[in-house]
Amino acid sequence: MKIASLFSGGKDSVYSSYLAKKQGYEIVCLITILSKNKESYMFHTPSIEKTKNQAKVMNIPLIIGKTEGNKEEELKDLEKAIEKAIKQYKIEGIVTGAIKSVYQASRIQSICEKLGIKCLNPLWQINELNYLNDLVKAKFNVIIIGVFAYPLNQSWLGREINQQFIQEVAKLNEKYKIHPAGEGGEFETFVLDCPLFKKPLKIKGYKDYKEGENSYRREIEVK
Question: Which of 11, 50, 162, 218 could bond to 189 as cystine, CB 3.0-4.6 Å?
């Protein structure tokens, strides 16, 4: 079956694409939505335009949609992008990186039902710590590019998801209820390398932005 990946460049969308491919699905295009609203309910925003670099090293076409990012209205822009994928690449389904967000999963499911295509959620309700360990085992090089919850701070930006990271977020989960995989929006990620990439991406520069208390994002340049 030909499918598209709803693709943010973060660990969830990339790993779900990896799992879908392992399950025999053919990923014929990626779909990225650029939101003007940094606090979008639906879409990842830090370093989002660098999905172009990821698509290039994956050798998969990328469809880019744009939205103002207004709640609920942004779903219409997602629907348009998926319709384009159906028309241009004959997709029969999409894969998402949804883990626990009923808001996101239910709305994407509704769009798929309306358009008559399948919605795949291979990470749905996965154990978060097992998932992070699976990322490491699968040789995913994932870095943090945004933090948005206490007690996370700027020092977390650029950190790699490795065994030390997993141990620390497990403790933060116990003490502060931080979601270990950042599903509550506590942190955002970017994948620099994984088995889907023909070659790894390298950071050639970055700039950090403080957006509020315990709220920082990193915009990266990659090559």
Answer: 11
